[in-house]
Amino acid sequence: MSRVNAPYLVFLGNEARPLMAKTGIGIVQWAPEHCVGQCRLSDDAINLGLEDLTPAEAAAKGARSLLIGIANVGGTISPAWRRVLVDALEAGLDVVAGMHERLKSDPELAALAEKKGRRLVDLRDPPEALPIGSGKARSGRRVLTVGTDCAVGKKYTALAIWKELRRRGQHADFCATGQTGVLISGKGFAIDSVVSDFISGAAEYLSPASDPEHWSVIEGQGSIFHPAYAGVSLGLLHGSQPEAIVLCHEAGRERLGFFEDFPVPDLQLAIDRHLEAARLTSPDVRCAGISLNTSRKNETEARQLCEELADRLSVPVIDPIRIGAEPIVDALLSVPAGT
């Protein structure tokens, strides 16, 4: 990792909701080799299947960082976590967070980290002097995951596509735009921490011009249908200039998570609106498929739903965990570079 010392003790506090523990879940799913154990404040907290350890116990087992695995609404650091954060620094661990509230802004934690020679790592600190978006065409191939809502599988889908492209011998990079993706890949930054005028420029920075056959697989954020987070989604869509998008959706979700007044959009409408917006900077953009999170369904129901939607919408439909990304990668590679 370029910015974070692994392996990690994954801190989950009292969080029992998988949606709010997606950072910890994602790390265990995609980079289990970086995880020594989990630290929970109660048995009611979500269990990632790791050994329950205190910071001192984790340090003795080789952990180098306490990673806050929670991504709560507003990105705040709870006062209930303070004792564990202090214990981690006392045990010789760095403390890593992707919260909007910065660790370094806490005078007590900052002073203790300096005293102990440890680091407070805020993953939402973007690079300095990012440009504004240019909108100019650039070389290379780019695919962006987009969503009907937040937390529907955009990161998982991008990682699955990236790994399948690499398996086939394609030159490809995973472009992380959120804290969990940064921890998995070791590069990128949380694009929702960028000042709004520079979001499209940040997306260009993350997926720069490259060899014409090279793929940049860009992790999407939020949704253009979301009343709170559409801004970052649109800036990312324009700056990425994707030749293809993959629409991500959780099967069975009818209302936006934690925004129950807003319905989840129809899938065809979501495809059409994303393509319409993307054409500002990528006139020939296409939809390469739909990625479903079918975790609420059994195996038979999940596969049947994917087949039904593929027939109705005339695009490949996958679950990146149950089915894998092969059909969508087939669709991506079916169009030669430069066409």
TrEMBL record:
<dbReference type="InterPro" id="IPR035402">
    <property type="entry name" value="DgcN-like_N"/>
</dbReference>
<protein>
    <recommendedName>
        <fullName>EBNA-1 nuclear protein</fullName>
    </recommendedName>
</protein>
<dbReference type="InterPro" id="IPR027417">
    <property type="entry name" value="P-loop_NTPase"/>
</dbReference>
<feature type="domain" description="D-glutamate N-acetyltransferase-like C-terminal">
    <location>
        <begin position="132"/>
        <end position="329"/>
    </location>
</feature>
<dbReference type="Pfam" id="PF17396">
    <property type="entry name" value="DUF1611_N"/>
</dbReference>
<dbReference type="InterPro" id="IPR011669">
    <property type="entry name" value="DgcN-like"/>
</dbReference>
<dbReference type="Pfam" id="PF07755">
    <property type="entry name" value="DUF1611"/>
</dbReference>
<feature type="domain" description="D-glutamate N-acetyltransferase-like N-terminal">
    <location>
        <begin position="47"/>
        <end position="126"/>
    </location>
</feature>
<dbReference type="InterPro" id="IPR035086">
    <property type="entry name" value="DgcN-like_C"/>
</dbReference>
